[in-house]
Amino acid sequence: MPTYKIENTAKNNQIVNILSLAIPVAVALLNAIQTKIDLGTWTKVLPHVNGVLNATCSIILILGLIAIKNKNIELHRKLMGVAFVLGSLFLVSYVTYHISNEPTKFGGSGWLRPTYYILLFSHILLSIGVVRLVLKAIFYAMTDQIGAHKKLVKWTFPIWLYVSISGVLVYILIAPYYV
């Protein structure tokens, strides 16, 4: 199985930097659109798809950690590639849902209400930052900057895993309120 390498050039690094900023800004702008685009009722299933994508990504991330701890670099690369694809699919699905559906209001009360909003706020805040971390970690791996990759993933991995798991928890808490 071939490994995919890219050159460590200023241009490639600049592309990573631009995407790191452009993706969260684009998601925020698309999410802020007040007028919804009618894409059909099929979009109502997307929050459930997103829950599955986040849950699967969480499992793949943990398996990727186990693979690298066991020094199985090839399996680690494949699993991290799958996690990246799942995260990308999540972003597309998330934006598609939010440009075509009104926001769902959380209806829980008591201790669930602050728990939900703490999870949601931390999930959103960290998801913004993790985009750059993941893109840089992948860039370092694909340009054979393994030392920089290892140094960065000490921060990236736990944040990415938290974002994935908290996404599942947010979904579980708000799922009863989807129309």
TrEMBL record:
Q: What is this protein called?
A: DUF420 domain-containing protein
Quote the InterPro entries the UniProt record gives: DUF420
Q: Where are the transmembrane segments?
A: 15-33, 45-67, 79-97, 117-139, 159-178
Q: Which UniProt keywords apply?
A: Membrane, Transmembrane, Transmembrane helix
Q: Does the keyword Ion transport apply?
A: no
